[in-house]
Amino acid sequence: MALSSALRLPCRHLCPLSALLSSLPGWDCSLLTEKKTAAKWKEKKKAREGCSLPGSSWEERLANAVTPLSRLPYQEQLQVKYESQRKILQTLASRLEELGIDARKPGGLCCPLRPVVPSPVINGYRNKSTFSVNRGPDGNPKTVGLYVGTGRARNIVCVKANHMENIPSKHKQVAQCYEDFIRGSPLDPCILFHEGGHWRELVVRTTSCGHTMAIVTFHPQELDHEALAAQKALLKEFFTRGPGTVCALTSLYFQESAMTRCSHEQSPFQLLHGEPHIFEEVLGLKFRISPDAFFQVNTGGAEVLYQAVGELSQAGGDTVLLDICCGTGTIGLSLARRVSKIIGVDVVEKAIEDARWNAAFNGISNCEFHSGKAEAVLPHLLSSWEDARPLVAVVNPSRAGLHYTVVRAIRNCRSIRRLLYISCKPEGEAMRNFLELCCPSDPGKKLAGEPFAPTLAIPFDMFPHTVHCELVLLFTR
Predict the structure, then answer these.
(1) Which pLDDT does position 11 carry in this prediction?
(2) d(CA 221, CA 372)
(3) What is the pairing mode between strands 470-476 and 453-460?
(4) How far is CA 89 from CA 86, 404, 421, 458, in A?
(5) 350 near 292, Cβ under 8 Å?
(6) What is the phi/psi pair of residue 397, to 5°?
(7) CA distance 270 to 254
(8) In whole angstroms, what is the distance from residue 162 CA to residue 169 CA?
(9) Which residues contact residue 158 at a Cβ distance below 8 angstroms, ignoring those fewer than 6 apart?
(10) Residue 47 CB burial class (10 angstroms; 0-12, 13-18, ≥19)
(11) Contact 118, 133 (CB under 8 A)
């Protein structure tokens, strides 16, 4: 499939303007359109800020905080996001100039920027939602929802998410049932660890196969084994024989945790009911998902993204694809049939177990997956790389970006001539990585490899109604 076909508008509900944008020569948008859209967005932003005043409802405040673009027509949302990505590429061009690299292209960008590729699903697209427990607008501390306000300002209010356009109805249903359960429990919620309490956040994961996983986090405080067992039994009873049966959960997990966030290795996820995994289908492949495994939050958008990554990689039958921060292996496995070999690396051990299972289940044998921090695994893999086959790297790190030793290993591996960096926050730590990939060689920092150069940027709207999108930045050398 040609790249233009992979990026073709997948949603019949979108305005023809988006199709027009994607077909413009030079992959650029009309500056006049950008200015008009930017002006409209500023007006809407002022109105949105006004809605955060005390006269606004809590539902409006939450929508303004989490989905600030939801009042704009979708094609205007895409234009706002295009403008923000354009500014990021201008910033990168300026930062590269500071390093003595002439990277400015037309429009002051460091490389051509394509229009934002729209999501095939606009509403209810999230396959994973995290709900907090805290005081609601009425002061009830057992309210399950999303936060308005910040801990630093000490003005947090937990607002139910029933009206949020990006969250599917199934997630809202499970959240409501969890709230009903904890309100009937004699145990307090855990709002601040040092103040005691037990019931904490809820994570809901769903798939297009109709599966639903619920993960309840619980602070054990001083409860003994018997008391913990009693609470787990009550939770299971509620969702399997009580009012919570309406949720029809595929999996119910329970995690005892005295930390803000912890992995399965730190505190195991305990299966109280149902199947240990849920399953999703992407591009004709079936994927197994564990409680804490990373999976793109917008499944339909992920399919469009992965198709484009395959075309941009220019991977052929003799190519080795290096999938860094691979999660359950979705990107690598979706491209496995067009390349010679897949090598995946991820820090989450359960995700790697899922990736190996996914490969075997789908009959894919030309792959290997390594569990561990990329900064520990990758230098060892690449330091002695002598394979004559072309090596293409795809990196999809968290917002924290790649560790410097990972960037250094990529730079110093001469076989890697083409790299795709996927980032949901390119203006954050990813920007540091971009500069490390492109800066001049520095023997003092053991950075001997030839620098990369940004070649093409394509934003993908994985998060409609929010200000965020996923940027795919192609680097070559």
Answers:
(1) 35
(2) 31
(3) antiparallel
(4) 5, 21, 14, 11
(5) yes
(6) -80, 170
(7) 5
(8) 8
(9) 132, 133, 134, 135, 136, 143, 144, 145, 146, 147, 148
(10) exposed
(11) no
Catalytic residue annotation? 424, 470
Q: How far apart are CA 233 and CA 227, in angstroms?
A: 10
Query: pTM, whole model, 2 decimals?
Result: 0.85
Of 135-144, 148-157, 345-354, which one has max mean pLDDT?
135-144
Alpha helices in 281-428 (DSSP H): 299-313, 330-335, 349-361, 374-383, 404-412
Per the DSSP assignment, residues forming a β-bridge with 345 are 324, 370
CA distance 469 to 475: 19
Express each pLDDT in 407-464 by its tens digit: 999 998 989 999 999 999 999 999 999 999 999 998 888 888 899 999 999 999 999 9
Which of residues 382 and 174 earns the better pLDDT score? Answer: 174
Rounded Cα distance between 395 and 439, Å, is 18
The token duo for 132 is: 């907090």
Question: To the nearest whole percent, how much of the chain has pLDDT over 90?
Answer: 73
Q: How far does the chain reach from its first CA to its final CA, in angstroms?
A: 25
Please give the C-alpha separations between residue 376 and each of 353, 408, 430, 473, in angstroms, as whole numbers.
18, 12, 19, 24
Count of CB atoms situated within 10 Å of the CB of 181 = 22
Strand 143-148 vs strand 199-206: parallel, antiparallel, or unpaired? Answer: unpaired
Residue 159 near residue 139, CB atoms below 8 Å: no
Q: Residue 103 has which token pair?
A: 């990277």
Asked if residue 45 has pLDDT above 80, the reply is: no
Residue 448 CA to residue 435 CA, distance in Å, equals 15
